[in-house]
Design brief:
alpha/beta, 5-stranded mixed β-sheet, 23% strand, binds zinc ion
Length: 241
């Protein structure tokens, strides 16, 4: 982890930013909000001396995850990789579609926060497979937190791992928030895609992560939904800020 508001690694609006070393350089998962790009890069240097940021994967178009994409691309020349749903939002800096406008009105972000447009080099659809810095990733589309939310699967240090964005958090907490595009309906359609993956490393965009036994956090949410219940949500328990 090279960025995070919760662990005090970078800016106050940054999701967890993960860095993975591949054969061709470093892959970042999400960029943070863009206020502390230099801090992220200095953390990358500290962790992976002499390695270059080769690729940036974005889980979805919320500001705390993608606001720093343009600055990161400019500073490192990295390849920016998003889903085909996130792509048009990022490339045009669409603050309506990203939810930034609504989030500003709700007071989640200061009035001056903007989404800088960022060119995307590669995009994928549900189930899409691609390589970033020589590491193979698979993307899984899980709606519910936002329409464009994707999880990334990869084998990291010999363990099947998931970068879950804001789809599912530690303890089986889901990411439903009170904004347009978010709701249980998406989870009802898509959450089952995360079943039976044998996940060890569990790396969500906020809160606690786990190096082993990751699947149980996902399964906990799936079990609840199968019984007809709504799992706990991100807003319950001050998990975010
Ligand atoms: Zn989000």
């Amino acid at each position: 982890m090279v960025g995070s508001l919760q662990y005090g690694l970078s800016g106050p609006m940054d999701c967890h930013v993960y860095a993975v070393r591949g054969p061709e350089g470093v892959v970042l998962i999400d960029s943070g909000a863009g206020t502390h790009t230099e801090t992220l890069l200095s953390n990358v240097r500290e962790e992976f001396a002499g390695e270059r940021v080769k690729a940036l994967l974005l889980t979805h178009a919320h500001l705390d995850h993608c606001g720093g994409a343009a600055a990161m691309r400019e500073r490192t020349g990295c390849t920016v990789i998003t889903s085909e749903l996130t792509l048009p939002i990022i490339e045009s800096g669409d603050e309506e579609a990203s939810g930034l406008r609504a989030a500003r009105l709700q007071g989640t972000y200061p009035a001056e926060m903007r989404l800088s447009p960022c060119a995307v080099s590669l995009s994928f659809a549900d189930g899409g497979q691609f390589e970033a810095a020589g590491i193979p990733f698979r993307a899984i589309h899980v709606r519910g937190h936002s329409r464009d939310s994707f999880c990334f699967l990869a084998r990291i240090d010999g363990r099947d791992s998931i970068f879950a964005g804001d789809v599912v958090f530690y303890g089986g907490v889901l990411g439903v928030i009170n904004v347009e595009g978010s709701g249980m309906e998406g989870y009802r359609s898509d959450l089952h895609k995360l079943q039976g993956l044998g996940i060890e490393g569990f790396f969500p965009g906020h809160g606690l992560f786990a190096i082993t036994g990751g699947q149980r956090h996902i399964d906990k949410a799936i079990e609840q939904t199968k019984k007809g219940f709504i799992p706990r949500q991100i807003g319950q328990g001050e998990l975010l800020f």
